[in-house]
Amino acid sequence: MKSLPNIRACVFDAYGTLFDYASAAEKCRDALGDKFAAFTGAWRDRQLQYTWLRSMQGRHADFWQVTGDALDHTMETLGIDDAKLCERLMQLYLELDAFPEVPETLRRLKQAGMRTAILSNGTPKMLDAIVTKAGIGDLLDDVLSVEDVGVFKTDPRVYQLALDRLGLKADEISFQSSNGWDAWAASAFGMRVVWCNRYGQKLERMPGKPDFIVKSLAELPAIVGV
């Protein structure tokens, strides 16, 4: 496998890339019943739509509020009237499961001297909660939240945040995301990009192009030459 040259840091999206956003709903599958699949997709779709719409309107609210607003909309849309379930789902969003290969992948990168970071829409509190639960805090050099710039991905200011905090050029960073729109945007910004296409998505029709497409982050160390 060819590797990306001159990579000095690996920066990861959080939700869907390092952490399974569907694991919150999965733990409430019994309560959701036959609405589980529709619920999981609708909650995620509405959550992302609200980030893009708020960014376009210049009306930022943090990801915790956006996630709650999206949950409320989804439950009403699917006819689920259960305040305790809503509260439990939000709590579980602070306890998302890491994908199985994540700890070992980060460990290999750190052992090889690679810098590692998260760059996410999540709030600092949300990110601290899931990083702590996964026990990977010591494998990350930084956890970056869009709250530092007050706008969501795919605004270029978000990707610039990683450059500023890490003190690196865009092409010295390998950015990993499971979200096609995020991967393409980071590429258009100038980062080297590994798209972890966990969900079998089709290629985006947007500016940019990932350097590699993988199904698991376990493939990353070889790609960045460690």
Structure notes:
The chain is an alpha/beta fold and about 230 residues long. It has two domains: about 10-20 and about 95-225, Rossmann fold; about 25-90, DNA polymerase, domain 1 (Orthogonal Bundle). It contains ten helices and eight strands. The protein has a six-stranded parallel sheet with strand order 5-4-1-6-7-8, sandwiched between helices. A two-stranded antiparallel ribbon has the order 2-3. α3 (about 35-55) packs across α4 (about 65-75).
User: What oligomeric arrangement do these chains adopt?
Assistant: single chain
* Rg calc: 17 Å
Low-confidence stretches: none
Note the main sheet.
6 strands, parallel
Overall 3D geometry?
globular
Features:
globular; 226 residues; two-stranded antiparallel ribbon; (S)-2-haloacid dehalogenase; PGP-like_dom2; single chain; Rossmann fold; six-stranded parallel beta sheet; 45% helix; 10 helices; DNA polymerase, domain 1; alpha/beta
List the helices and strands and how they pair.
Blueprint: E1 9-12, E2 19-20, H1 23-26, H2 29-32, H3 36-57, H4 63-77, H5 83-92, E3 97-98, H6 102-111, E4 115-120, H7 124-134, E5 142-145, H8 156-166, E6 173-177, H9 180-189, E7 192-196, E8 212-214, H10 220-223
Parallel strand pairs: 1-4, 1-6, 4-5, 6-7, 7-8
Antiparallel strand pairs: 2-3
Helix pairs in contact: 3-4
Kindly summarize this structure in a few lines.
The protein is of the alpha/beta class. It is 45% helix and 14% strand.
